Automatic annotation (TrEMBL):
The keyword Transmembrane applies. It is a multi-pass membrane protein. Its main location: membrane. The keyword Glycosyltransferase does not apply. Keywords: Membrane, Transmembrane, Transmembrane helix. Belongs to the RER1 family. Involved in the retrieval of endoplasmic reticulum membrane proteins from the early Golgi compartment. This is Protein RER1. Pfam families: Rer1.
Length: 199
């Protein structure tokens, strides 16, 4: 009888599982607390990037790691500048994303809808920061220090950056959208008369 009652009790999570669950919960709480602090987050990432570049220049190696970091962050930046629903695909009727949410207007007579990024700012920051931390960690392992002629990597990255940004800017001009809110008209709400106040 006692054995049957013991078997019917829910299994208690193991000590290791509890430890990792606690760590995961605390880490997520920390991330959630950083969301409103945009400027300090980006400053800390910039400082880490400077530390990484200083280390690369000091040790004169790990150029492949630096190149991989640059390419990854370029991809993140392009996703940050791109709308969630690509107007080019929508124009062709090939968009596979549900059209429940707001989208960019593609014609002059269409209603204004806010710009929604493919990669939100917080995920962009988190991905960029995590990549820098991984890159710094890689510089402590010699097998990541693959010998390459670094000027070729620099030139290739510059060419790739210019071509990618040129294509993105052409896309922005063609579909008339700006991925930044600076300089756009903002609305504060309604006054007592019911009129919308422009700031």
């Amino acid at each position: 009888m006692d054995d049957a009652s013991e078997d019917s009790r829910p299994a208690q999570p193991g000590l290791i599982k509890k430890f990792f669950l606690t760590i995961s919960t605390r880490y997520q709480t920390f991330l959630d607390s950083t969301v409103p602090h945009l400027l300090p987050r980006w400053i800390s990432t910039l400082v880490m990037m400077i530390v990484f570049l200083a280390r690369i220049l000091y040790v004169q190696g790990w150029y492949i790691v630096t190149y991989a970091l640059g390419i990854y962050q370029l991809n993140l930046f392009i996703a940050f500048l791109t709308p969630k629903i690509d107007p080019a695909l929508e124009e062709l009727g090939e968009s596979d994303i549900e059209e429940d949410g707001p989208e960019l207007p593609t014609k002059a007579d269409q209603e204004f809808r806010p710009f929604i990024r493919r990669l939100p700012e917080f995920k962009f920051w988190y991905g960029a920061t995590r990549a820098v931390v991984i890159a710094i960690t890689c510089t402590f392992f010699e097998f990541f220090n693959i010998p390459v002629f670094w000027p070729i990597l620099v030139m290739y990255f510059i060419v790739l950056f210019v071509i990618t940004m040129k294509r993105q800017i052409k896309h922005m001009i063609k579909y008339r959208y700006l991925p930044f809110t600076h300089g756009k008209q903002k609305y504060r709400g309604k006054d007592d008369s019911g009129d919308v106040l422009k700031s």
